[in-house]
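Lecture 7 notes: from sequence to structure.
We start with the chain below.
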Amino acid sequence: MKQKLFLALFINIFAIGIISPAVSADTTLLVPHSWDQGLFATKGTYDDSAHSWGQRATSGAWGTGGVNYQSGSTTNWRAASSGSLNVVLNGSYCPGACAYGSGTGYKGLVQFWNDPANFVAFGLIHDPGVSPNGMTIMIEGSANGQPIGGYWPGGAITGTSHLFAFNWGPGGISVTIDNNVTLGPYPVAATNPSISFLGAGRNTGDIADTTFSGINFSPGSVVADPIVIPASSPYLTYSATLSQAGTGTGHSAYINAHDASNNAISIGIQSDTGAPESQGNPYYIWERVQNGVFTYQYLGPAAAGNNPVTLKWWKGEQTAVFYEGATPVANISVNLIPRLFFNVEGNARLNGDSVNDTFTNTQVAVGDTCPTYCGLNGTWNTTDFNFHGLTATRTNGSTQNGANFTVNGTVSGLPAGGNWDNNLVAGIGMIAQYWNGQ
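Predicted structure tokens for the same chain:
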């Protein structure tokens, strides 16, 4: 245990838990590991969550030796010299009614490790010395070889879910907890830190259990997963040129492919003043729905005006690759079940926001059993999928490939608290894959 400096500040807000968001953003490859045969670690399918849990088997209280008391997942690549990270620490998965663990001591933490003289761990801890009767806030580390950090008074935090938002750069590392209190920055050198999501048990038989959800790095914070393009021919290639514009707090333009089983993939351009990644500027973005679970990732700034985009999907590999122009910029794992359906879609965020999108030269090549299950069926439907004041319109005579569209309008009719996260606020044109005569 590092030097115990009790922080004077006591904030009652920490008794309020934060529910884990249902989305995630920029991810990087996580590698699970453990130093104890009774402690385990796994990561989520999309590297946007991690779980550390188990019952410690080794002996010796933490702080008296090595790190044989913990397990977790670490970024495969070192982070950049500046960036930000949001993650929710959940503690409701261990046996019985405990939160984050049980026994003499346990903790869940996020650790930034630059070198032996510069590291810091932020988290929640139960420990006989600092919080014998419940959980408290923990900050433990070293800045240029000098101890930093401290602990809240014992029992200062309750609940089973808390949001930690980190920022690091030349000035050090800071954390904001539950959108309320910011601690730091601590003068830890962070030129290329590794970042770990860890759980720990104090001594033999202690249970540790923390799930880290919504792991969300700002663009450029870490090295992105490598782009891997399958060698075979894609089942789907869908391209268009997008121009995204509007007024208010948020607006977007997408091309989308989906099935009838609650799975979808999209690529487009979005402006959202509520997004810390883009801060209202137009950014390329992909979105995925897999068995009803929504995830997304910002890819980088988009220029004003016309921007060609393409999504390709390989059925055998269950992989999608996204392109800005001719450049592949991301690939993701996604399961789609043909027959497929295709959208052009424009959105706006709140009542009073407007959108003014154009889509030109839409091109869809789909299918691998031709002619029975190849190509498109009928014409684009721009009548039946317009919501809350937004309208899709086909603007040329091409009824399948080569069709052009606009999506225009001002959002109206959303209920109090309504936005594009909890309502379908869209103008959509849709067409289906040709499927054995239909």
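Points to note: The chain has two domains: 12-217, 236-433. Residues 1-25 have pLDDT under 50 and may be disordered.
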